[in-house]
Design brief:
By secondary structure, this protein is an all-alpha fold. The protein starts with 22 loop residues before the first helix and ends in a 13-residue tail after the last helix. The protein is 60% helix and 0% strand. The chain is built from 8 helices and no strands.
Amino acid sequence: MTTHTDTPATVEYAPEQPARLEWAKHAPEVYQAMVRLETAARKGLDHKLYELVKIRASQINHCAFCLDMHTKDALAAGESVERIVQLSAWDESRHFYTAKEVAALELTEAVTVLTEGFVPDEVYDNAAKHFEEAELAQVIAAITVINAWNRFGVTCRMAPGHYRPGQYK
């Protein structure tokens, strides 16, 4: 029986699916390169903005492991539950976010989805209005890196629920 610590022991949940592949164990050089890329991508970015971008991309990509990680890290960094909850509907709840955060979220969606095969000029131009070029380059890097992590997470079916804030830092 699978139970969660914050619920009565009588509640039974679906069993946790095991990971398909422990990819980091089998490709340690790739994993270490990703960690270095992640470290480089977050430099100079506001931590809360960084986590909002990570959460939003992970929502779009359905990466439960990354959602678990980045919501916990955002909460540990002082982000509000309300803003995290509203993030999946940020476009309808823009009043929870700054104009800079909205620009980053728009850019996150455009880079993550790429349905038109490119990032629309108006999305890029709006982001460029809110970020200096160096910071914009870092935001684009952060979006790109979380999308790569998401692909590892969903492909290998990494299980959420076990991450502790700051565990991989």
